[in-house]
Amino acid sequence: MHTNHSSKEDALTWLALKNGSEAAFEHLYDQYFPKLYNYGMRICQDKALVKDCIQNVFVELWHKRSGLSTVTSVKYYLFTCLRRRLIKELSRQTKYIHSQEPDEEYHFEVTFSHEFLLITSQISKENQERLQQAFDSLTKRQKEAVFLRFYENMDYEHIAELLSMKEVKYARTLIYRALDVLKGSIRKLATI
Question: What topology does CATH give the domain 2-104?
Fold first, then answer.
C-alpha cells in the first residue's frame, strides 16, 4: 500500500518538476539523495565521486525538466542515471577500453547496515560472519541484483533494464541463482 502511495506521489511530483516547480525538485532531491548515495557507495567507495555524480544527475534533471518524458518509476529512473554516470566516470578515471563490459568496471559491495546488525545482535557473531561470507561468495552482478530486489524493492523488470539484461527472466534467474548460492554457502559454512 505504501509503495502505491509513494508511486502516485512520485508521479505527481515528477509532473510538477516537468512544469518547473522548484519545490518538486527539492522534494525529489531530499527524498532520493540518501537512497542514491547508499546505492552509489555500493558501486564505488569514493564518497566525493558518488556525491558529485548524484549532484550532476540532479543538475541535468533540472536543466532538462521541460523535456522529460513520463516515467513509470522515478526511483528506477534516478538509479539508472546514477549507475550510468558512475560507471562512465569510473571508466574515464581508470581509462578502461569502452568495449569492456560495464560490470567489469566497478565493484559492487553489499554490507549489512547498522540497523540490520542491531536487529540481528541475537545471532551469534559466528552466524553473522557466515552470512557475510555467503554474501561475499556472490558475483558483483548477483550482489547488485539482490540489493536492488530486497533492499530497494525494485521489480524484476526494472532490475533487468538497469543491469542491461535483454529479458526480465534473466533478472529473475540471476536472483534465484544468487539465493541458491547463499543457501548453499550458509549450509556449507554451518558444517565447518
Answer: Rna Polymerase Sigma Factor; Chain: A (1.10.1740)
